[in-house]
Design a protein that fits this description.
The complex is a heterodimer of chains A (245) and B (601). Chain A has 245 residues and is an alpha+beta fold. Chain A is elongated. Chain A has 10 helices and 7 strands. The N and C termini of chain A lie far apart (54 Å). Chain B is of the alpha/beta class and 601 residues long. The relative contact order of chain B is 0.18. The chains are: A alpha+beta (245), B alpha/beta (601). The interface between A and B is large, with 56 and 57 residues.
Chain lengths: 245, 601
């Protein structure tokens, strides 16, 4: 808030990626000047909503506006993040802001990318609890310590910021599962209630699914929820190696 | 034929048709619970959602699911939960529905746990439960209960992702990023599907189904300041009203006490459940004056009004004395970080405050619609005959916040919304499953029936001049905020109603400037506005009509509850814009009904 207030910026130069394949036009950057309320640190999403009032054809996804639904992942001045919880004070370079779609996925229109590849990789890891034992009448017991192992894993909001910041995912989006799916894989491997750990590890045991991660850690630096997919991936690697010995 | 802005009108012959056993409109908690039930039974099921399902607003629910699972207290009793809910509703919640919800709840909660929902745990490895507002033991005589099952302060997120995952496993078809426009109703008043379009391509469809579930969630976006997601535009409610069916208790809107000042984003009641409390500018814990027994854990309507009174009487905080503080700093970092990690994030982001060190500035924010599409406990949508009797609308179901079953009556208790949506999403699914097994027969829709459901879409698509959508929406929201807020009075509401008529005229004349096919969010927003106006007008008319104060509906000109005239549901039809009454259910099956008493906390 203070950064904006002290500079008393009232007009922002917004440059936004525009592309509608149906229009026959090539992608281009649209420049808009947006007046913002003085002394307030608005979010990138607020800025986009103001831009849309100027030009209703600008397209982007948004829903909760508080960083839990994962709709508005985008590339903000070169870094992936959520529009709704990225304040201008953090994102601005001078008074300029450049918004592009998440890199590495096909663009449907403007800031909207096709998430199919991302979701397909998520589906591959069987993202649901597998437990073939007879169920108790009440809850399946889990100790506080066992439950703590899920912290830092279950909170993923599937925004796609991490996988689309990952060079290994750009190269092999079909064979390398990517940080988001692997974080979920580890969430179920770590769950004391899940009985399919071995099958899950079997499925991950190839040269690509996990091992294409080279520890670049872009995923960690962009995750809007402060999660650490690299750590989860390393845990999976350790389990695979330990099992092979 | 995708909608391409060449001014061509759509008709039945131009639509692609897809056929399902059951379609569920909405991919939040109640929708995914209904679809799971159907898909697991092998029926061809589709979820039609305008956003990818995990973007639905259930994801934002924080505090938990209130349910007597006897974890925190082995002697807890669903009947106590029922008593609290009836009292919380200010006695216009239907007691058969409340009984069903409280009794069936534990089964549904354990089902979710078995699906993998990562609940927080007690030392014994059981599901963790926290205290929430309006909860008591022993029918209000045994002190504060701890009945809300929680996954830290991210229960909705954990629940929605778990349900999405379970649906993937069950093979549910997801029509993600499809927008449902209107119901297709045949000459026998049966609902035989919906008109929808795929947002990515702009391709319109007739989705034909033996059963249609409206699980479209809330409509908090009729107000300027709300905790609701931008997608909460009352789409199912709009569809029902346009199809000539009624809504119930639409004047009952919950203003949640603790919206972050200046933004509206919510911080959970769980903050107070964990020991946080509200203070005014003098640092006084003012809830002790308004609710000596329950204090900060009185029910939400009571707390929100007390906060507004503090502010109106000049004891608000900040330079404009227009908010109060929520204090958590005395709890210590361990409790705050372990039990309320999401709140810490939100508070830092939107209030620039670390709750471990400083209080959070808060003000009541529009949060939840207790009213909605009237249904029975099986989720079947009801309409009212001219003689006042209830009739089932064949082929149509509703569940979750869009529905009014009515378990919340005049005021919802915290943690009861997640319970409502899992219990009644499931019961709708179960009823459809049985009906499909018995062989539902609905008569067919004619091309005229289908064309009728295309009227709105066509009007928007061919508009060539007229009103700007964003401008009209802002006028609507401002009007609702000013004239139909926490405190209401006849004069202001009369003024607001006149203004709403003008706004409705404008919505008839909106202009969609961008008519492109591909992912046209402007088209979606134009159609959403047509739903917002239906909800807003229903709210306004019912609020003006209910001449008493009950639950969340507080009138300066009628300050008392009037059981003689208004121990009733309000029923509103859009074509007449008139309000009729419907009896509240006082016939639970296994317990004695709870009779109205003075409601104090």
């Amino acid at each position: 808030m203070d950064a904006i207030a002290s500079k008393s910026i009232s007009s922002i130069n917004l440059s936004i990626y525009r592309y509608d394949p149906d229009s026959g036009k090539k992608p281009y950057m649209q420049d808009l000047s947006i007046d913002i309320p003085e002394g307030q640190d608005i979010m990138v999403l607020d800025l986009l909503n103001m831009a849309k009032e100027q030009d209703p054809s600008i397209s982007f996804r948004r829903s909760c506006g508080e960083g839990v639904c994962g709709s508005d992942g985008m590339n903000i001045n070169g870094k992936n993040g959520l529009g709704c919880i990225t304040p201008l004070s953090e994102a601005l370079k001078g008074n300029k802001i450049v918004l592009r779609p998440l890199p590495g996925l096909p663009v449907i229109k403007d800031l909207i990318v096709d998430m199919k590849q991302f979701v397909d990789q998520y589906k591959k890891i069987k993202p649901y609890l597998i437990n073939d034992e007879e169920k108790p009448e009440r809850e399946i017991k889990q100790t506080v310590e066992e439950r703590e192992k899920l912290d830092g894993l279950y909170e993923c909001i599937m925004c796609g910021c991490c996988s689309t910041a990952c060079p290994s995912f750009w190269w092999n989006p079909d064979k390398f599962l990517g940080p988001a799916a692997l974080l979920q894989a580890h969430r179920f491997i770590s769950d004391s209630r899940d009985t399919a750990t071995e099958e899950r590890l079997d499925q991950l045991e190839d040269a690509f699914s996990v091992f294409k991660c080279h520890g670049i850690m872009n995923c960690v630096s962009v995750c809007p929820k402060g999660l650490n997919p690299t750590k989860a991936i390393n845990e999976i690697k350790k389990k695979l190696v330990k099992r092979a010995l | 034929m995708a909608m391409n802005g060449k001014g061509e009108e759509l008709d039945a012959s131009k639509l692609k048709v897809l056929e399902f056993d059951g379609i569920v409109v909405g991919g939040g908690g109640s929708g995914l619970m209904a679809s799971l039930q159907l898909a697991q039974s092998g029926f061809k099921t589709a979820v039609v959602s305008k956003v990818f399902p995990t973007r639905s607003h259930t994801v934002s629910a924080q505090g938990g699911i209130t349910c007597a699972i006897q974890s925190a207290d082995p002697d807890d009793d669903w009947r106590w939960h029922m008593y609290d809910t009836v009292k919380g509703s200010d006695f216009i919640g239907d007691q058969d529905s409340i009984e069903y919800m409280c009794q069936e709840g534990p089964k549904a909660v354990f089902e979710l746990e078995h699906m993998g929902l990562p609940f927080s745990r007690t030392e014994e490895g059981k599901i963790y439960q926290r205290a929430f507002g309006g909860q008591s033991k022993d029918y209000g005589k045994g002190g504060q209960a701890e009945r809300t099952c929680a996954a830290a302060d991210r229960t909705g997120h954990a629940l929605l992702h778990t349900l999405y995952q379970a649906n993937l496993k069950a093979g549910t078809n997801f029509l993600s990023e499809w927008f449902a426009v209107d119901l297709v109703k045949n000459g026998d008043n049966q609902v035989v599907g919906v008109i929808a379009f795929e947002i990515e391509t702009g391709e319109p469809y007739f989705l034909k189904s033996k059963a249609t579930v409206l699980a479209t969630g809330g409509a908090g976006r009729i107000y300027q300041t709300t905790s609701n997601a931008m997608i909460n535009t009352g789409d199912g409610t709009g569809m029902v009203l346009r199809a000539g069916f009624p809504v119930q208790d639409m004047e009952m809107w919950q203003f949640h006490p603790t919206g972050i000042y200046g933004h509206g984003t919510l911080v959970t009641e769980g903050c107070r459940g964990e020991g946080g409390y509200l203070v005014n500018k003098d640092g006084e814990r003012f809830m002790e004056r308004y609710a000596p027994n329950y204090k900060d854990l009185a029910s939400r309507d009571v707390v929100a009004r007390s906060m507004m009174l503090e502010i109106l009487e000049g004891r608000g905080c900040g330079p404009d004395a227009d908010h109060v503080y929520l204090k958590l700093d005395h709890l210590g970092p361990e409790i705050v970080h372990k039990r309320l990690p999401g709140i810490t994030e939100l508070s830092k982001t939107f209030a620039h405050v670390d709750p471990v060190e400083h209080p959070i500035p808060v003000v009541p924010t529009c949060h939840y619609a207790m009213g909605g599409i009237p249904t029975n406990v099986h989720g079947q949508v009801l309409t009212q005959a001219t003689d006042g009797t209830d009739n089932v609308v064949h082929g149509l179901y509703a569940a979750g916040e869009a529905a009014c079953v009515s378990v919340h009556g005049g005021n919802r208790l915290g943690g009861n919304s997640l319970l409502d949506l899992i219990v009644f999403g499931r019961s709708a699914g179960l009823h459809i499953e049985n009906a499909l097994k018995d062989g539902i027969t609905l008569s067919k829709a004619t091309n005229d029936d289908i064309d009728q459901a295309l009227v709105n879409l066509n009007r928007v698509n061919i508009s060539s001049t007229g009103e700007d959508v964003a401008t009209v929406k802002a006028e609507l929201q401002k009007n609702m905020q000013l004239n139909f807020g926490v405190f209401r009075t006849g004069d202001l509401m009369e003024k607001g109603l006149v203004e709403l008529e003008n706004i409705r005229e404008k919505t008839h004349n909106i202009h969609l400037t961008d008519k492109s096919s591909r992912f046209n969010t402007a088209r979606v927003e134009a159609l959403e506005l047509l739903n917002l106006i239906e909800v807003a007008q229903a709210t306004a008319v019912c609020a003006n009509e209910r001449k008493e104060s009950r639950g969340a509906h507080a009138r300066d000109d009628f300050q008392e509850r009037d059981d003689e005239n208004w121990l009733k549901h309000s029923i509103y039809f859009a074509d007449t814009k008139e309000v009729t009454k419907r009896d509240v259910n006082f016939r639970p099956k296994t317990v004695q009904a709870f009779q109205p008493i003075v409601r104090s906390y």
